[in-house]
Structure formats: C-alpha cells, structure tokens
Amino acid sequence: MPERVKPSLEICVDNPGDFDLAIAAQVDRIELCSALAVGGLTPTPGLIQHAASSPIPVYAMIRPRAGNFCFSNREVHIMIDEIQHIREAGLAGVVLGASDGQGELDEPVLRALCQAARGLGQTLHRVVDTIRDPVSAVSDAHKLGFERILTSGGAAKAVEGRAVIGRMIEASQGRIDIMAGSGVSGSVVPALWAVGVRSFHGSCSGVLDDDGTRAIEVRALSQLQDAIQNAANAWVR
User: Fold this and answer.
1) Residues 6+ apart with CB under 8 A from 138
2) Which candidate, 93, 98, 97, 69, places its Cα nearest to that of 83?
3) How do residues 4-44 score in pLDDT, each as one tens digit?
4) pTM of the model
5) Beta bridge mates, 202
6) pLDDT at position 177, please?
7) Predicted pLDDT of residue 157
C-alpha cells in the first residue's frame, strides 16, 4: 500500500487567547513568543506558565530584544538564563538564533546556547534568512544539534524563497527538518509542497482594530490546515 507523508504545522503565538485557539485547533506544535510584531521575543513569565500544561509541544523563542541578531556577552548570559527558565517550566524546546554581523551564523554563541539547551528540542530561527547563504546553514545547524530550521529561503515570504528552501531540503538529506515560515497560508501550500516542504509555520493572524491588535483568524488557520492535509492526501511516495 502506498506510504503517505505526515506533514506538520507549527503556529506562533504571543498571547494566551491565541495559545488556547492553537490548542483547540490541535496544531502539531506551538512557538511561544512575546511581541510578534517585531519578529518575536522571549515570552513573558506569565505566558510561559500558561503554556506549561500544554498537551502539545511548545517551543519558546529565546531573544532578549528586537533588532539584529548580533548579541553581546551580557545578552548571551541573559539568553542562557532564559533557557533555564524554559527548562524549569517544562516546555518542550527553544527557538534560537545568532549571527556575527558579517553574513554568517555566530557559531560560538550558538554553541553556547545549544549547550545550555541540551535535552530540550532546538529550532534555529529565521536568522538564517539574514546570512549570505541559507543553504550553508543546513550542515552547520545539524552539527550544532538543531532538529529543525525555520526559514523563508532568504526572501520576505516563504513562497518567494521556495527555490532556496528546496535546495535547503535537498542539502538536509533528511538529517534536519526544514520548516517554511513567513506569509504561509492555505493558498501557498501547493507551491511550497512542490519543492519538498512538509513542515509549515504560520501565525494565521489578522489585525483586529486601529491600535494594531492582532489575533489568530480561525478561518485562516482552518484553511491552512485543510490545504496541508489536501496536499498530503494527494501525494504518495
């Protein structure tokens, strides 16, 4: 009988209401953040506590400030402390990233963070989209111990960077998961699936008011889940 692939969907949230919606929708994993408007920062202690009893895996963003991904020694020590708080809370993993400001990953910093996170799941975030060659990050991330990379292929939106994402998937040789993120909605799933994407990341959020308050749009999340399932049902290996 033909074997069918099992895709996965991770939803990023920065508030308890969206967290609860993602749980109710039975997504595969949650990325927990604060301040998604600036790309996501380390979640607040209260939100971490809210997520502590989650029935699905929760990975917490570890990022002490907005802006670039070049971190000082003091910031690295803060990030290590934040990783320890995530461990103590019982969450499944952390989302990490650092660059050297010269177009490469900052491997010494990442090595220190990964060492601090040993025993937790580890995702390398979209810092890979800020370096010169995202494809080169695949081998480096695997050697550092990451289990997945979140990427848009160096483009503003994943669908625009899908050719690079496809090359990253080829370079991974199944050793590390390549997860497509940024602008991921039901309408772009077929194009991403065509280049080999089987792991998807999105927020499915929309603006609620003139103040810029954002929240998950249930219909958008449902459409994304349906598109992923339809792609999986149509594909046999």
Assistant:
1) 149, 168, 171, 172, 176, 178
2) 93
3) 568 999 999 999 999 999 999 999 999 999 999 899 999 99
4) 0.94
5) 11
6) 97
7) 98
Residue 217 has pLDDT above 80, yes or no: yes
DSSP the chain: -------EEEEEESSHHHHHHHHHTT-SEEEE-B-GGGT-BPPPHHHHHHHTT-SS-EEEE--SSSS-S---HHHHHHHHHHHHHHHHHT-SEEEE--B-SSSSB-HHHHHHHHHHTTTSEEEE-GGGGGSS-TTHHHHHHHHHT-SEEEE-TTSSSTTTTHHHHHHHHHHHTTSSEEEEESS--GGGHHHHHHTT--EEEE--EEE-STT--EEE-HHHHHHHHHHHHHHHHH---
Say which residues have a Cβ less than 8 Å from residue 8's Cβ, sequence separation at least 6. 28, 29, 179, 198, 199, 200
Q: Identify the band that residue 237 occupies on the pLDDT scale cut at 50, 70 and 90.
A: low
- Amino acid at position 175, single letter: R
- Looking from the CA of 130 toward its CB, the CA atoms found within 13 Å total 16
What's the token pair of residue 59?
């990975």
How far is residue 228's CA from residue 216's CA, in Å, rounded to a whole number?
18
Q: How far apart are CA 92 and CA 59, in angstroms?
A: 6
